[in-house]
Amino acid sequence: MILPLALSEMCYETRGGLLLDRLSLTLEPGPRTVILGPNGAGKSLLLRLCHGLLRPTSGSIEWLGPGAGSASVHQAMVFQRPVMLRRSAAANVAFALSVRHVPRAERRGRIAEALAASGLNGLAERPARVLSGGEQQRLALARAWALRPQVLFLDEPTANLDPASARAIEDLILRFAAGAKIVMTTHDLGQARRLADEIVFLHHGRLVERAACGRFFAKPATREAAAFIAGELLW
């Protein structure tokens, strides 16, 4: 197990300013963690840093588990707008497995299992780029899950999807959570209530509050969180 992931006084700064400000957070195995906050709070940026796509300007981010040395191959990320290769749905999954050097003998079984779990086995040979938005997002989840990650980062996985497609994605997330730590961002408070075990709330790049999901929504501890839940604009 590669977890926990410890962030200590982590900052991320660009010429435009300080985007994450001395953020300290430890992500443990188990609970589904949902990151909330207004637009520009740093939610997606935090996921990219955790996944290793970016490096912090200062502070530290470190995997502390016994498998920390191979952390990069034990995690996966699904983006709000996943990139689909000009290949079939099955070939998209196959490519991800080849990049991770999964033995050829295992790939066919993993592809079939991932597509079946995602309800896409009937579309295996269809070009991925002609799939609907919901089908593409399910394929992105299948592609990530086929890697058998210990940690799965999800950035707004149902943004711009219709309710039926969003529900299908939520069902997949709950299914995949049985074998992986889920860390995800969302703008949908209802979705956060349905999927989260714990909430991490960001505002202006700062960690303002972290609490169990029920407690966060029933009795937020900070003015900013209470205003966000009430639908007020935060500045």
Count of extended strands: 9
What fraction strand? Answer: 15-25%
Outline the low-pLDDT stretches: none
Q: What is the helix/strand order?
A: EEEHEEHHHEHEHEEHH
Structural class: alpha/beta
Walk me through the structure.
The protein has 235 residues and is an alpha/beta fold. It has eight helices and nine strands. Strands 5-6-7-3-8-9 form a six-stranded mixed sheet, sandwiched between helices. It has a three-stranded antiparallel sheet with strand order 2-1-4, covered by helices on one side. The longest helix is centred in the middle third of the chain and has 14 residues, at 104-117. The chain is globular, with a radius of gyration of 18 Å. The N and C termini lie far apart (39 Å). The mean pLDDT is 95.
Short description:
This protein has 235 residues and is of the alpha/beta class. It has 8 helices and 9 strands.
Helix and strand topology:
Layout: E1 5-14, E2 17-27, E3 33-36, H1 43-51, E4 58-63, E5 75-78, H2 89-99, H3 104-117, H4 133-145, E6 151-155, H5 163-176, E7 181-185, H6 189-195, E8 198-203, E9 206-212, H7 213-218, H8 223-229
Parallel strand pairs: 3-7, 3-8, 5-6, 6-7
Antiparallel strand pairs: 1-2, 1-4, 8-9
Helix pairs in contact: 2-3, 2-4, 3-4, 4-5
What tags apply to this protein structure?
9 strands; 235 residues; 6-stranded mixed β-sheet; 25% strand; 3-stranded antiparallel β-sheet; alpha/beta
